[in-house]
Amino acid sequence: METQYITLETKGNGDIIDITHYLERVVTKVNLEDGILFLNVIGSTAALTTMEYEPGLIKDLKNILEELIPYRQDYAHNFAWDDDNGHSHLRSSFIKTNFFVPVTKGKLDLGTWQQVILIDFDTCPRQRKIVVKVFS
Ligand code: ZN
User: How far apart are CA 100 and CA 128, in angstroms?
Assistant: First the structure.
């Protein structure tokens, strides 16, 4: 099994980054024809999922997450650690930090309007590391 890493700088605060082309680069680099990429973003305040990466949905996703798990709320985590990122941890738990992407004939099996995204929910810019395990 191959292991690859993707390292990214984020702006934090719900920054959404399209990582699809990094995954395509991994597939080319390890010469994967048929298999699976398993990704995990290391940390408890970020998440991985897919979306149609366009400005409208980027705004919609940020808004719906703010409605579901608002920034300003009395989270026990914030009191316990004198922290301000209780919402960041909760959003990460709900969306999850890991993700599988199938690969067939050297291409990611994704829809034309389906991009793999990293969301950084922390309240400050961060450097994020995504580990990619390549199953062939
Ligand atoms: Zn925290």
Answer: 18
43 Cα: distance to centroid of ligand 1 (angstroms): 10
Hey, is 95 helix, strand or coil? helix
Question: pLDDT tens digits for 80-117?
Answer: 988 999 999 999 999 999 999 999 999 999 999 999 99
Handedness of CA 95, 4, 120, 112 (dihedral sign): negative
d(CA 132, CA 19): 12
Asked whether 68 and 118 are in contact (CB, 8 A), the reply is no
Q: The domain containing residue 14 runs over which residues?
A: 2-135
We report the CATH number of the domain holding residue 25 as 2.60.120.460
Q: Cα dihedral sign for 117, 93, 6, 105?
A: negative
Looking at the 3D structure of the chain, how many domains does it have? 1
User: Residue 118 has which token pair?
Assistant: 């990293």
Q: What distance in angstroms lies between residue 38's CA and the mean position of ligand 1's atoms? A: 26
Question: Considering only CA atoms, which of 6, 2, 4, 3 is closest in space to residue 128?
Answer: 6
Going by the DSSP 8-state scheme, the letter that residue 4 receives in this structure is E
Please give the distance, rounded to the nearest whole angstrom, from the Cα atom of residue 82 to the centre of ligand 1. 9
**pTM of the prediction?**
0.95
